[in-house]
Amino acid sequence: MTETVSGPARRGKAAVRKGLKMQRIFTKPGVHPYDEIDWERRDVVMTNWRDGSINFEQRGVEFPAFWSVNAANIVTTKYFRGAVGTPQREWSLKQLIDRVVRVYADTGREHGYFASDEDAEIFEHELKYALAHQVFSFNSPVWFNVGTKSPQQVSACFILSVDDQMESILEWYKEEGVIFKGGSGSGVNLSRIRSSKELLSSGGTASGPVSFMRGADASAGTIKSGGATRRAAKMVVLDVDHPDIAEFIQTKAREEDKIRALRDAGFDMDLGGKDIVSVQYQNANNSVRVSDEFMRAVEADGEFGLRARLNGEVIETIRAKDLFRLMAQAAWECADPGVQYDDTINDWHTAPESGRITASNPCSEYLHLDNSSCNLASINLLKFLREDNTFDVASFVKLVELIITAMDISITFADFPTEKIGETTRAFRQLGIGYANLGALLMATGHAYDSEGGRAIAAAITSLMTGSAYRRSAELAAAVGTYDGYARNAEAHKRVMRKHAAANDTIRTLEEMDKALHVEATREWAECLRLGEKNGYRNAQASLLAPTGTIGLMMDCDTTGIEPDLALKKFKKLVGGGSMEIVNHTVPRALRKLGYQPEQVEAIVEYIAEHGHIVDAPGLRREHYEVFDCAMGERSISPMGHVRMMAAAQPFLSGAISKTVNMPESATIEDIEKVYFEGWKMGLKALAIYRDNCKVGQPLSAAKKKEEVKEAPAAAAAPVPAAPVRPVRRRLPKKRPATVTRFSVAGAEGYMTASSYPDNGLGEVFLKLGKQGSTLAGVMDAFSMAISISLQYGVPLETWVEKFTNMRFEPAGMTDDPDIRMATSFMDYIFRRLALDHLPYESRAALGIFSAEERTLQAAGEDPASLHTEEAETVEALAQSAEIKPQAELLPVFAEAPARVDATESHGRRTADAPMCMTCGTSMRPAGSCYVCEGCGSTSGCS
């Protein structure tokens, strides 16, 4: 731990200096941290996913040898500053870290944070070591802005406020626009705005908050985020007692119905489609602020009053369970709204005398005063796991001290998007230290994510982190003063510290690792309370758990935030380009910890590489299966398993947790009610769910199939023939047009011959893969014949495309086809190519399959359908002249059969639901309640 050196305020050069004594964690006196690193030069070349052209190239960049290709690529493309190709362009990680750390160290020296120049040097060297070794990372705005000529914005999370005045509402629109333009997100509570059931002073009826949400939504959709193509990140909150709460709850569910209707009418309603812009409320996450009073009414099946905004009078009484059911049903239909537990949030509020906490940032982890912001940093937990599977508690505590010191310094030099946000942030100095790689840490140490042991470790680590952070905040208060709002809120702040310490006492430890963590956490909380009573605190908030999307990739983390492993295999980028799928490196470490011999570990890893799961892996004991449970896959963690893990960590966080509780498509409305209710009972501050495949604008959507099945009875109203109609095979003539396509997937080559009917329509496919054995050749011949015969019997090509696109197996990776830059398997490539060659644009668009030229037009904001006007007219003319019957008429038996969702489809839909990255075209993966692209590091929410 560090010491505080006190003395009189410095008056001139001779005055005694007041500041912190720093201790070394990783570095050695007289040795620069860069000198102990093996540096290497690399080339970073990024290709355009639309046409295969090079869209970024920087050769000779310098990184530590132990950094992965992916981490180096992301830092080079996203964080290096200066025009590419100019001498001013950064080319080394050293330059990036030096640019940032120099500002922190110089500001610390200038404002008296350090007791001596030697302490300042220790701070600087330790910070450089930790960043270069991926031990922790600041959030993205720090890397974007600090040390550049741009405004020194360091915060990614913002909360705004809106009053019941038109001027305030218009100011809200403006402030959101400024924040979105800067690449960040914001949240706001609209509950002060009068409902549509109340009167204006002029005698008219108020518009209500939902009406004003339309304008803000349109603004967010227009501005996008950071000037890029991804949507802006925003959160809209409404209190449960607002008279318009039912309308608010149903806004996005109603729009989802509209999306289905428009899609079925032929409009392009995919994510990024040109017609999706006509749908409202799609640019925000919605959350309902529920009170304890409301939740108790739900529990007791009682009534609940909706109150006028101006005088608080009850203007309508409802059954609480009905409203709660409406929330769960809307979430079942479209994943919105989430819930925020208002009384729990404000019971842990350190500054209640300065105002209530009414809203959060878009990902729900930052919760504090209106018109405020929070800068974040996250620790890579796996860096503290020693080879003997013990946790380096002492280094962890010292690192927390270092990070909290640096983060507080950043508020001193930071710029903010609005004057009000700057004033509040400087007055309360909210920080958000958190961590990543918890899921990997638990697996590596042989702990199941959904287990008492796993939760004990998570609770102890979180408690130790926050206790050390607030103890450091008390030391900073002695060195450079408390936050401005502390005097007014001192008793409330100290009460919350005692609540954290009391929660720490309830942790039930089970093993040596969590016992060691808990012992130190107890010591830290005791010292925190002692120093806080004496010095006060420098920061109103200290900790939260962010999604760690881009920075998690920068630190080469296997898991983000508090999340479990997504799957047992992941894609690894290769130095020469392309990628390969490998078993996560935490798996063999976990197997060794569980006592398996090297040959057993090798056999199990090979099994996972082939099958993607551990069920029936050779030699793996069934009692160890749970250690390898993931967020998706053959053995996925139950929804309540996620909730229980959040509940274990929540009492030790100043803020909340960015996490979405994934639920299977089969989940019921009652299941969602249970999750929301148990979240309240367990003391969470915020909770959001996502039911697989509940949205239309995504690949492999089963919603369309359900609509078709639902409409089948109406179509069957015609008289039923006496005898069943059997499909008729329509053979191809001996001479028919055909195309031969040579292709390559991840370096593996193949050939495809596709034959068509003379009057159009695919009727035959033959496949040959290069360098395969006789068995695989025979299987591919049989597969080709099966596909060909089914096409001739009238099975629509769309059906095969739906079934086989996104199928995952090796080889997978880059292709040599400019229209399909990435493929998850041979089958994925083959059926995407067939769709592009043989399906009309409207059918392909519904499946999310576009050519390079079409994607280019989409990115430019133009309609790709304009490319196919003449094609459509030609096809229609051919159909009329040849009197071609629709395939559905040839195959009534197949058309009426309900579509069955294969287990593999449902299994893969967790990632299929994720949007495609608009920067590089890779399918994104969940990170907290946002998505992150593993290809380029872009995120769908806060950076």
UniProtKB/TrEMBL annotation:
Residues 734-836 form the TSCPD domain. Keywords: Cobalamin, Cobalt, Disulfide bond, DNA synthesis, Nucleotide-binding, Oxidoreductase. InterPro entries: RdRp_reductase_class-2, RNR_2_N, RNR_lg_C, RNR_NrdJ/NrdZ, TSCPD_dom. Gene3D superfamilies: 3.20.70.20. It holds the Pfam family Ribonuc_red_2_N. It catalyses: a 2'-deoxyribonucleoside 5'-diphosphate + [thioredoxin]-disulfide + H2O = a ribonucleoside 5'-diphosphate + [thioredoxin]-dithiol. Its EC number is 1.17.4.1. PANTHER family: RIBONUCLEOSIDE-DIPHOSPHATE REDUCTASE, VITAMIN B12-DEPENDENT RIBONUCLEOTIDE REDUCTASE. Catalyzes the reduction of ribonucleotides to deoxyribonucleotides. May function to provide a pool of deoxyribonucleotide precursors for DNA repair during oxygen limitation and/or for immediate growth after restoration of oxygen. This is Vitamin B12-dependent ribonucleotide reductase. It comes from Actinocorallia libanotica. The lineage of its organism: Bacteria, Bacillati, Actinomycetota, Actinomycetes, Streptosporangiales.
